[in-house]
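This part of the workshop introduces the protein records we will be handling. Getting from the letters to the tokens is the skill we practise here. An example says more than a description, so a record of this kind follows:
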Amino acid sequence: MFTPGQKIALLIGFGLILAAAGFIGLIWLGMLLPGFAGEVFQKMAGLMWTPVILDASLFLIGLILVLWLNIHIRARDGDEYVYLEQVEAPTSDLPEGARAVIFNEAPAPRGIEPSLAAIEGALELDDLSEATTLLYELPVERLEDPEVLALRIELSRRRGHDKKAAELREQLRLKSPQHPLAGGEGSEIPGR
């Protein structure tokens, strides 16, 4: 009938109502005390039921309760800031639920980095000077990665530097023997 989360919420709500009713009951029982203590509780009960004070106190108690619950929920659930990743031009066979994903933390880059994709694009357009510029912008430690070596081989081959392309291919063969370009002399980049 109720989910476990709803059961907990109902128990908390009933617990708060019972606590408030118990507090009011204790004040009413305190009115039965003899002497000065009984008079203090009688004054408190009289003030509690005064229309303006009753309304203001219920408003303040409710406001404090809502703010406290909000702080508690935010501390438990974490920050509301999320990363939304959407498919820009989805195909017709892509289900509606697969067109957007919400991440609580920044997603790690998938596959090829944007700078490598830009270099591939420049090579595809035969803009060799732009591809060279983009390669120089990469960090030095990345220049030895297999995917960067493959792009460097293609750039060297297109510029007519066959000796340099052969050196880079040998370097790629040592780094990543299973790479398609690490094979024979006539290996081509897949998809070219």
About this structure: The two ends are 61 Å apart (CA to CA).
